[in-house]
Amino acid sequence: MRPQRASIRTPGFTLIEVLVALAIVAITLAAGLRAAGSVTNNAQRLIEVSAAQWCADNQLAALRLSKAFPGVGDAEFTCEQLGRTYKGVLRTRPTPNPLFRRVDAALSDEAGLPLVTLSTVLGRL
Q1: Which residues pair with 94 in a beta bridge?
Q2: Using one digit for the tens of pLDDT, what is the confidence trace for 26-82?
Q3: How distant, in Å, are the alpha carbons of 3, 19, 46, 60 from that of 32?
Q4: pLDDT tens figures, 88-97
């Protein structure tokens, strides 16, 4: 008679199973890094837009407080907020009622990319 060989099976994972698990983990980590990068970019954009909006608000408030009736035309200005310099243009346009003027404050970053535009209507006092 032939002696029977005992089949010994050791517990564990095969090389294929380990490679598949590593591939899944790598794909998940790459997606997580991309999402984190997007959150960082969005936070930076929000900071820039908020600071530009403060600049536009300040310019329009200064016009209202001066109580002067603005002339029609464009005027450039710069504003510094949070250590950054923003370029802006105040565009004053007539309205159908000659006692009012529409004023737009458009701001862009140092590279010239538009960030925010705020508008108001000023009346002759």
Answers
A1: 101
A2: 999 999 999 888 888 888 889 999 999 999 999 999 999 998 999 999 999 999 998
A3: 56, 20, 21, 42
A4: 999 999 999 9
Read off the tokens for 26: 């790598």
CA distances from 93 to 5, 48, 53, 87 (A): 97, 27, 20, 20
CA distance 102 to 100: 7
Taken in order 30, 35, 40, 45, the sign of the CA dihedral is positive
Buried b (16+ CB within 10 A) or exposed e, 36-50: eeeeeeeeeeeebee
User: 99 by DSSP, 3-state: which?
Assistant: coil
- d(Cα 54, Cα 80) in Å, to the nearest integer? 10
